[in-house]
């Protein structure tokens, strides 16, 4: 299968390559191009699929009125010199299974695709989306040997966006008024922080009772599972793509936004050598600062539980990868 080339470009462009042209990858390609952030290369193992998605997105340009190039390929050489690589390759979960159950298949896909992509774009920033998120981000970092500030996982923005949405729906106010923060791992143990969640600066505890907050926290923790249960054959992809696009935008436009992302912790929050979700400053260099929030004893304990599970899962993933090599 031949790949399409960037034919009508006469100057070097900003390029985002997305590995995995499935639901998340293709929706992200649409967001990045239609926001005019970068040209996009979509890579998948299935021949014809990424080429078809790319052509469909290109044919939307007449209506959308943007000049961004979108290319589909099965060849990593076409992703060369990308500014950002997004890894969205791998299987999603089905009803009744945990994100951790995906390790067996996704560990190999993520490590191999990250290595191949970075071999062609050694200066790129790597954003991992594949689940289980914090585990896959660690494996991709180790497999590529990239400096830690150039590797990050997307989850906290999605989880925080869900929490913000549920707060806005409950109060019947505009989402524009809501700030909410979710830390920790992208799974059942995630740590939504009502204390750091506000309606135009007013703590949510002044706007709703403890029982309501607990219900919204619970719905946030199960935000992904609720969608999987409804759709049966897919997990969420619109909100995940929007959340990933926010990271791409903050990096490419050097916005220095403070966003919750899965980043390497080297002692911050009392955690060593793990990727976990915490607020960080995202700019042109990648992760430019890790922000340490003051946590209560209960919040700290919940955060540590996330770390324990992610560490165990990393060990499990490494054992699987090592066995696969024998
Ligand atoms: N971090 C987060 O918050 C979220 C993570 N996810 C995760 O993102 C991943 C992708 O989800 P969807 O796009 O919905 O799945 P999907 O099944 O629609 O797409 C996955 C794509 O990866 C491709 N693929 C598989 N192996 C590959 C390889 N070796 N190289 C290149 N491409 C390969 C498949 O052909 C498929 O097109 C899943 O692991 C899912 O759990 C999804 C939503 C949110
Ligand atoms: O639920 C899933 O498996 C996909 C995901 O991570 C999310 O939507 O939060």
Automatic annotation (TrEMBL):
Keywords carried by this UniProt record: NAD, Oxidoreductase, Tricarboxylic acid cycle
EC supergroup of this enzyme: oxidoreductase
Residues involved in NAD(+) binding: 20-25, 44, 106, 129-131
Any one GO BP annotation for this protein: tricarboxylic acid cycle
Binding of substrate, residues: 93, 99, 131, 162
EC number(s) per entry: 1.1.1.37
Domain Lactate/malate dehydrogenase N-terminal: 15-153
Primary role: Catalyzes the reversible oxidation of malate to oxaloacetate.
Family: Belongs to the LDH/MDH superfamily. MDH type 3 family. Belongs to the LDH/MDH superfamily. LDH family.
Protein name as catalogued: Malate dehydrogenase
Organism: Tychonema bourrellyi FEM_GT703
Species lineage: Bacteria, Bacillati, Cyanobacteriota, Cyanophyceae, Oscillatoriophycideae
């Amino acid at each position: 299968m031949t790949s399409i080339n960037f034919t009508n470009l006469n100057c070097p462009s900003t390029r985002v390559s997305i590995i995995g042209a499935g639901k998340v990858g293709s929706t992200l390609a649409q967001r990045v191009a239609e926001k005019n952030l970068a040209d996009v290369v979509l890579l998948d193992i299935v021949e014809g699929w990424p080429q078809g998605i790319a052509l469909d997105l290109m044919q939307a340009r007449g209506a959308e009125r943007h000049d961004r190039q979108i290319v589909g390929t099965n060849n990593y050489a076409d992703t060369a010199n990308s500014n950002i690589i997004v890894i969205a390759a791998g299987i999603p979960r089905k009803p009744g299974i945990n994100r951790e159950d995906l390790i067996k298949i996704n560990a190999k896909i993520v490590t191999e695709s990250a290595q191949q992509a970075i071999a062609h774009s050694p200066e790129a920033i790597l954003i991992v989306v594949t689940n289980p998120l914090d585990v896959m981000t660690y494996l991709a970092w180790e497999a590529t040997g990239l400096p830690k500030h150039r590797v990050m996982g997307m989850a906290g923005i999605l989880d925080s966006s869900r929490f913000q949405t549920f707060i806005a729906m409950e109060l019947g106010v505009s989402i524009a008024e809501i700030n909410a923060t979710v830390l920790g791992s992208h799974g059942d143990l995630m740590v939504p922080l009502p204390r750091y969640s506000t309606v135009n600066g007013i703590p949510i505890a002044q706007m709703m009772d403890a029982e309501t907050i607990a219900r919204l926290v619970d719905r946030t923790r199960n935000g992904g599972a609720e969608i999987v249960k409804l759709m049966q054959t897919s997990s969420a992809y619109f909100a995940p793509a929007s959340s990933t696009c926010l990271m791409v935008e903050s990096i490419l436009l050097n916005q220095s936004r403070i966003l919750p992302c899965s980043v390497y912790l080297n002692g911050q929050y009392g955690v060593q050598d793990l990727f976990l979700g915490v607020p960080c400053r995202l700019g042109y260099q990648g992760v430019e600062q890790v922000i340490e929030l003051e946590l209560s004893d209960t919040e700290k304990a919940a955060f540590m539980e996330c770390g324990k599970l992610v560490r165990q899962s990393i060990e499990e993933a490494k054992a699987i990868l090592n066995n696969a090599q024998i």
